[in-house]
Amino acid sequence: MAEPQSPEIKIPDPVEMSRNVARIAEQSQRLVADFLQRQSGGDASASQSMMHIGAAFMEMTARMMADPAKLMQAQMSLWQDYLSLWQRTTQRLLGQEAAPVVAPAKEDKRFKDSAWDENALFDYIKQSYLLTARWLQSTVQEVEGMDDKTAKKVDFYTRQFVDAMAPSNFVLTNPEVLRATIESGGENLVKGLENLLGDLERGKGQLAISMTDYKKFEVGKNIAATPGQVVYQNELMQLIQYNPTTEQQHKRPLLIVPPWINKFYILDLRPANSLVKWLCDQGHTVFIVSWVNPDEALAAKTWEDYMTLGPLAAIDAIEQATGESEINMVGYCIGGTLTASTLAYMAEKGDDRVKSVLYLVTLTDFTEPGELSVFIDEEQLAALEEKMNSQGYLNGQSMATTFNMLRANDLIWSFVVNNYLLGKDPFPFDLLYWNSDATRMPAAMHSFYLRNMYQRNLLVKPCGLTLKGVEIDLSRIKTPTFMLSTREDHITPWKSTYAATQLYGGPVKFVLAASGHIAGVVNPPSANKYSHFLNTKLPKDPEQWLAGARQVEGSWWPEYAKWVQKYAGPKVPARQPGDGKLTPIEPAPGSYVKVRVVE
């Protein structure tokens, strides 16, 4: 029987290593000097934010110490778990079988390397971490007496700490990294340091973790490449009309209002998963708003401006482009929140040009806004406003970091291990290219949104908000409504979005898709993935709705296509961009979408 071969150990080339170290040292010196210059005076808002997080943990500690018996019980439970782990590890070391005390969740990819199970030492490290993480989080969650907001904040940042301290994130406790280090003679760590410095340089002093190979993608060439023309633009948006793909189209055009927290082409990544192209193929004249990536010149732009220069301007432009005054609308995430605000405004003005609306993962009732509420308290909002007012906008990287923290293991630490510890280049992935293509938020608009929606929840209150001198009330919206939410959404929790089913004044259809905020929405029928849930009844309790729903395999897209046909009108000859009164300005996807915060 052949002996198993040990991995080949590479002896580092001292000359090449010296060159690499010299290059890294030069790059580091330049980055440190640039960082110090940018940070002169310090970031007061960040310091204030950290102080308030620290205060939350101080309160948690004080309440925990007030009940020493409960704390001792938790400690005893942890010790018992460790005793079981030591006993079973000893059994393994003696060659006996031993069931694990704790195992990672099925979706946890951190411990996928076989050594985490096969090697007794690494199995012990893994289980020790999982036991401690479970104990720490459960102990924090069981502390009594804290208000709900403080409890959520403590729980969220405890999880951030737990995720950061995973043994997979360190060289000496990650078997895959150790193996790579031995086999490459440490070249992986040198390459990883180069990757780290490159990301710092790309982020202009802030760490902008590379999630994909950015050179493999070009907006307008292999993503956001559905043919069309920009037919209208103003200072906040460009309006794209897509070329028809059928000989006839429905009479009423379809307008998509995407979020401006990210760029519109999440709905047009590639032909195979483009909702834009698929809707064109169903015979719709598709228009989409491409929001500007604002700078300090647009600092004073408000929520009203986004409504006026966004959907209202687009509806007027569509009539000029097609001759049709009646349309159907789609609003995605914050674009859906703006769409609901717009329809409420139009209802008060007696304007019924929108004949149906599709809301994609849209919050209008912010009573339970999910984990993003961790960042929305008075102290953090005041600090954020101070920062925004000093530069005129919220930096796109700050917003991207916030969203990445909601799924830190997948969107932060997996790349730390791959890029910096293993020294690998990230895999080309269109979705992660889009995720890294950050956008800024105008100071006035973003402050209004956070305070009036997240903090005060005024949109859901009758006459709680006034737009263009008009008090709005979402219950006055009679437009037929299709609502799509996703079951594993970490940004707009489906039970919170469901609350709007009890609010709108017109007929409502609610559909719940499997997966999350992005994958559940961008799920073409051809992918044959996931499923969705249907229920014609709309009880007040979302759990009751789900209990009575039937599960349908595959994409929700055909369900919407069938529903919207009732409002799409008869077929007419296909319309080409430029057929109407609007002269095309430039080919899709236009120039606004190509402005990047980080190159």
Automatic annotation (TrEMBL):
Its main location: cytoplasm. InterPro entries: AB_hydrolase_fold, PHA/PHB_synthase, PHA_synth_I, PhaC_N. Keywords: Acyltransferase, Cytoplasm, Transferase. Gene3D superfamilies: alpha/beta hydrolase (3.40.50.1820). One of its GO terms (molecular function) is acyltransferase activity. Residues 107-279 form the Poly-beta-hydroxybutyrate polymerase N-terminal domain. GO terms for biological process: poly-hydroxybutyrate biosynthetic process. It holds the Pfam family PhaC_N. PANTHER family: POLY(3-HYDROXYALKANOATE) POLYMERASE SUBUNIT PHAC, POLY-3-HYDROXYBUTYRATE SYNTHASE. This is Class I poly(R)-hydroxyalkanoic acid synthase.
